[in-house]
Amino acid sequence: KPQVIIIGRPNVGKSTLFNRLVGKRLALVDDQPGVTRDRRFGDATIAGLEFTVVDTAGWEDDDPETLPGRMRRQTEVSLEGADAALFVIDARAGLTPLDEEIARWLRSQTVPVVPVANKAEGAAGEAGAIEAWSLGFGEPVALSAEHGEGIADLFGALWPIIGEKAERRETIDTEAADAEESDEDAPLGPLKLAIVGRPNAGKSTLINRLLGEDRLLTGPEAGITRDSIAVDWRWTDPASGEVRDIRLIDTAGMRKKARVTEKLEKLSVADARRAVDFAEVVVLLLDATKGLEHQDLKIADAVLQEGRALIVAINKWDVAENASSLFNGIREALNEGLAQVRGLPLLAVSARTGKGLDTMLGAAFEIRESWSKRVPTAALNRWFDDALAANPPPAPGGKRIKLRYITQSSTRPPRFVVFGTRLDMLPKSYERYLVNGIRRELGFEAVPVRVVLKSPK
Ligand code: GDP
User: Fold this and answer.
1) How many Å lie between the centroid of ligand 1 and the Cα of residue 323?
2) Long-range contacts of 256-260 (CB under 8 A, 24+ apart)
3) ipTM summary value
4) What is the pLDDT of residues 66-118, one digit of tens each?
5) What is the fold, at CATH topology level, of the domain defined by 3-184?
6) Which pTM value belongs to this model?
7) Which CATH superfamily is domain 377-454 in?
8) What is the pLDDT of residue 221?
9) Once rounded to an integer, what is the mean pLDDT over residues 374-401?
10) Whose CA is nearest to atom 25 of ligand 1?
11) How far does the centroid of ligand 1 lie from the alpha carbon of residue 302, in Å?
12) Which of 135, 162, 321, 376 has minimal Cβ neighbours within 10 Å of its Cβ?
């Protein structure tokens, strides 16, 4: 197991950090002869990354004058077995001369140092964290050991250093890193749904059908609707009997009396753009009597560019001809035209008869789930290691591109950050390999997934 030592002047929160990392697992007091009795050892786990953490808080002394010397002597012994050092400063107090003294000494050592700005909750802490850059160890990890914030970032900083040596658990142990990530997993509110499409695709008819009242003006004339912007309503899912809340965003209504001079075709793309500001899931409505046109792909592309979940519904299915070849043709054209997603939900509906509408809404709730999903860091990195092993990154000029670890930086839409070195040399095809893997193997099929490459400073 790799060993990580916690270093810092008194009162910066070393023991609190130690206890946070070790959690309920009992800290072992080392009583081997010849080892300083002041050191505490504990088993730490962050998101499946296991290591031994060493607390040096016991070195603190009643007489601060002698501290640097004592610290040096004691730390020298401890550093011998250490794979990484967490150099803790107090973000609230800011840097002190003693911090700087320790930093100077640490720079003369060979152990990799991760600067940690503790007590970084709130705005006062933020300033201190920025100050910690000046220690010369790169980007500080801002955290609050007491509140358990920022532990996932600590994982991000430690992984490149000790990840290879660490034994990772077989079962996903997500306690520390994922406890704080779970804020985001608050229950999802009403499904924010927008329906977009070219003029005359049947958007207004569809909305009226869904709401069960003639709230919007519909007719053969294109682009005549201008009504309310958002409508809240309850839908009972016939498949499960569940009652679910939906906020429907009426993009046609957002046109605000469409300036007739503007081309209607252009307007529908603009509508889609505006809709995505409000919507989680967007339904692109096609007209079965027209098929898929270039304009539809442009709208779909705009939705995906904005990172929204997309569903395609072919309307007017009641009057569709050659239904199966129409459907398959559209499926193929979508796969070809929209490289950024695979297997978009494609449904046949009729706003007039109501056919397929419950299926469409069910699909909308389902795709919102994957769009909102977070993969625990440990599971993500297990997949990542396998993906790299199956297809190692190339070695341009004989020097291998190193991909070290991956984290999911956000959900809704899902975004991932891959850390590594020589990333500018990584071919686009390899990036696509990773994106496709995330989609296929981690359950992000059909949602826009973004991957950013980052080299640590
Ligand atoms: P919008 O411009 O997208 O809002 O389109 P509208 O809702 O105004 O519909 C345009 C035309 O298509 C109207 O004449 C509707 O009656 C017709 N329409 C809409 N949905 C259907 C459908 O499911 N089947 C058939 N046969 N016609 C439809």
Assistant:
1) 18
2) 256/226, 257/226, 258/223, 258/226
3) 0.94
4) 555 656 666 666 777 889 999 999 998 888 888 888 888 888 888 899 999 99
5) Rossmann fold (3.40.50)
6) 0.59
7) K homology (KH) domain (3.30.300.20)
8) 41
9) 90
10) 316
11) 23
12) 321
